[in-house]
Structure formats: structure tokens, C-alpha cells
Design brief:
mainly alpha, Four Helix Bundle (Hemerythrin (Met), subunit A), 5 helices, elongated
Length: about 140
């Protein structure tokens, strides 16, 4: 059984992003003196959602990607799914870099809405495909 280098690489990139988002959110909290929750601060809400959504999705994806990679020794499929997930998470982060992307402000730029859509769909589809792939590997 080989070490899951694809999952480890994707995980390394995601934890760096996660920690950056955490520091940005924490710094904003300190600036506006909001310890818990978001108050009426939409910027804090946006930053918190960007950080939290990555936390909700990344950990389980990396674990399952690692399982699939350990079973196969790494394949184009595991690499492709890892890259697809990273691209989706980057797209989501771009969308949530603006209130236009997170809150759908009037006059919002379409690019942020498209990034949010692509990020959500890419995250969901890569996770579903990965889960089905792991089930297939286990049944084989």
C-alpha cells in the first residue's frame, strides 16, 4: 500500500487556505469587536461562511480521497477528482471574496455568481463521484 500523495497534496493546499481564511475572519472579528456570531456585519458573515464552508467540505473529501488512493495506488481518477475539488474550492473562495458573491447584492457581478455556482456544483459533484468510486473499489 502506497502513501496517498495526491490526497496529502490536496490536503496540504486546503489546510493552508483554511488557516488563511481563519486568520482573516479572526482579524475582522477583532477589528469590529464581535466575539461570537456576526451581528449585522455582512462582511464578517461572508468571511465566516467562506471559512466554515471549506471546513465542512474539505476534511471528509480528503479522508475519502486518501482511502481511494490507498486502494488504487493512485490513479488518474483520484488525481482528477482531487484537482476538480481544489478548483471548485478556489472558485467558491473567489465568489466569497465579495459581498456580490456571498449575498447576491443588486448590481452584483455575474462572475461572482458563476464562481459560487461552479464552486458549489464542483464540490458536490466531485464528492458524489468520489464516494461512488470508493464504493466501486470496495465492491471489486
Amino acid at each position: 500500500m502506497e502513501f496517498p500523495t495526491v490526497a496529502a497534496t490536496v490536503g496540504a493546499i486546503l489546510i493552508i487556505a483554511q488557516q488563511i481564511f481563519m486568520m482573516i475572519t479572526g482579524t475582522h472579528r477583532g477589528t469590529v469587536s464581535i466575539g461570537v456570531g456576526v451581528g449585522d456585519d455582512k462582511q464578517l458573515e461572508r468571511k465566516m461562511r467562506r471559512h466554515g464552508n471549506l471546513a465542512e467540505n474539505a476534511a471528509i473529501f480528503i479522508v475519502v480521497l486518501g482511502f481511494a488512493e490507498m486502494l488504487t495506488g493512485g490513479t488518474l481518477i483520484t488525481t482528477g477528482l482531487g484537482v476538480a475539488f481544489l478548483i471548485a474550492r478556489i472558485s467558491h473562495a473567489v465568489a466569497f471574496s465579495s459581498l456580490s458573491g456571498s449575498h447576491g447584492q443588486e448590481n452584483s457581478a455575474r462572475i461572482f455568481a458563476l464562481c459560487r455556482l461552479f464552486g458549489a456544483l464542483g464540490t458536490g459533484l466531485s464528492g458524489i463521484i468520489l464516494g461512488l468510486y470508493l464504493l466501486y473499489l470496495l465492491a471489486s
